[in-house]
């Protein structure tokens, strides 16, 4: 991540414009399929102006991924051993679904990186993400051992939550094609209701 420094309002505006443009481009074309020219055009800046703020495509992508990972881990951090097990897990499901609704480009950026073998975030996946998942797995296993939820494989439970919530962002085009007459709020309300029933039934002891 670039070192914080004093910036003018114009500089801050341009940096944000570049990051917003890069998010749009990367989420559509992936890292390999994206170019600095595309990002500059999307941002409404010249390529030399873009390079004043970021030395390379890699630098822009790295900053986006760093911000993304911080936000991506936050919903899982909120699961606490002191709460009601089903409420804690369902809270996580709701938060992940809300992220798909509110941050679809970020979800696709992450998915594209994973599909490429995670070359730029493998360290974070095998480090911070794995550590956090392992911590929550211990909690879920304890709940199962105490009979507070049905016995389940915690890792695959978490994988299922990721798959079923992020689908609505990563496969947005497919969802809209199948449900062309429904608004976003209707789709996500129905998804929330369905996932609530699905996971509640799965977890009820």
Automatic annotation (TrEMBL):
Q: Which residues form the HTH tetR-type domain?
A: 12-72
Question: Where is the signal peptide, in residue numbers?
Answer: none
The record's section on Gene3D superfamilies has:
Homeodomain-like, Tetracycline Repressor, domain 2
Q: Does the keyword DNA-binding apply?
A: yes
Which stretches are labeled DNA-binding? Answer: 35-54
Annotated keywords: DNA-binding
Q: Which domain of life is it from?
A: Bacteria
Q: Give the GO biological process terms.
A: negative regulation of DNA-templated transcription
Report the Pfam families cross-referenced here. Answer: TetR_C_3, TetR_N
GO MF annotation: an example: transcription cis-regulatory region binding
Q: Which PROSITE patterns match?
A: HTH_TETR_2
| The protein's name in its UniProt record | TetR/AcrR family transcriptional regulator
